[in-house]
Amino acid sequence: MTAESAYLFRHALLRDAAYQLQLPGDRATLHGLAFAVIEELAGGPPPATPLRALHVAFRPHPTDAFAEELALHAGLSRSPAGPGAFEAARTLYLRRAAESHEANFRLDAARTAWLQLAELSSGSGRGEALRRAGIAAWRGGKSGAVKDLLEQALALFRAAGDRWSEGIATGNLASLLRDLGQVEPAERLFEQALAIHVEAGNRRSEGMTCGNLANLYLETGRLDEAERFLQKSLSIHRETGSRGDEGTVLGNLAGLCLETGRLAEAERNYDEALSIQRATQQRRQVGITLGNLGQLYLETGRFAEAGRAIGESLALHREVGDLCNQAVAIGNLATIQARTGHRDLAERGFLAALAMHQEHRNRRFEGIHLCDFACFLVAGGRIDEARRAWAKGAGILREFGNGPELDRLGEQMRGACAEAGIEAIGEERL
Predict the structure, then answer these.
(1) 220, 305, 309: which is closest to 273 by C-alpha?
(2) pTM value?
C-alpha cells in the first residue's frame, strides 16, 4: 500500500467514524442542510410534473449533475415540517437522475434509478417507472428481465384504468415479442395497442404503432400491407408535427423500397430520413439509418461507401451504448470485408457479431448473420461448417416467418455455391 493510499484509506475511516458519532437526529438535520445548499447552488429545484407515459422530450436542468446526491440526502433528511417533507424531493431527483442517465445513454444507471423510483411510487406512477426501467434494460442489451417489467407495468396501468399508458406498454411488449421471434402474439398485441390508442386519442402513438405493424408485415412478406401502414404512419406523424418519428418512418419506408427493388426511391428516403434525424439530434436513429443505407450501398456494389456508412453507424452505436445495433453493424461490416477479400477480418467480425447476438437474444439478426457466415464459409471451401451455419440461420428466420430475407440470402447462397462448384446448400427451401 502506498503512502497516498494509506492516507486515503485512513481518511475515509475517519470520515465514516465521525459520521457515525453524530446522533441520528443531528445526521438527518445535516443531510437536510446539505440538500438545501446543493440545490440552491445548482439554481433551485427543477419543475415537477406527474410521471406518465407521455412522449415529452427531456429538458436538462442544472441540478441533474447532482440528482443522485440530492435524492440520497433527501432520503436521509428530516425537516421540522414533518417526516414526509423530503419524500417529494427524493422522488423528484430520482426521476431526474433516471431521465438524465437515459438522455446520456447510461442505461444501466437509468434502469437502477427507475427501479428505485418504482419502490417509492404507486398506481400508474409505479407502472411508468417499471416500464421505463424495462425500456432502459432492453436498450442496454439486458433483455432477460424486460418482459417481466413490462407485464408488471401493464397490470398496474390496467388496475388504475389508465388506458393511455396501457396502450403504450402494450405496444412496448409487442415490440419485445417481435424481437424475440414470437411473431403471432406480437401482431395481436400491436393490434390491441392500436385500438387502445385510437380510443384514447393518442395520435402520436397510433402513428408509431402503425409503423411497428408495418415493419412486422415487411419482415413476414406482406409487402402491400406494410406499405399501406407505413404511409398511414407517415401521414399521422406529419399531421402531428412529430419530426423525429417522421424520420424513423421514412427510414423504414426506404427499407421497403429496397426490398421491392425501388433503389433510387430507397436512397432518397434514406437521405431525407438522415436529414431529419440529424436535425432533431437523434443519434441512435442516425446510426440505424446509416447502417441500413450501408446495406443499400452493399447491394449496389458500392463497397467503399458501404464501409464508411456502416463504420460511422458502428461508432454512433458505441457512443450511445446500443449493444444490439453494435452487433448488427459488426456483422454487416464482416459481410463487406468478406466480399472485398479481407477474410481474416471478416471471420473475426462474424464470430464477434454472432456471440453478441446470442448474448443479447437478438435472434433475427443471429439468423441473418449465420446465413451470411455460411456463404463466407462456402467461399473458403469449408462446406460442412457452411451447411451447419446455414441450417441454424435459416431455421431461425423461418421461426420469424422471415421469408423475404431468407429468399434474398438464398440467392446469395446459390451464387456462392455455383462459384464453388457445389450443389446449392439449402436448395430444398428455395
Answers:
(1) 309
(2) 0.80
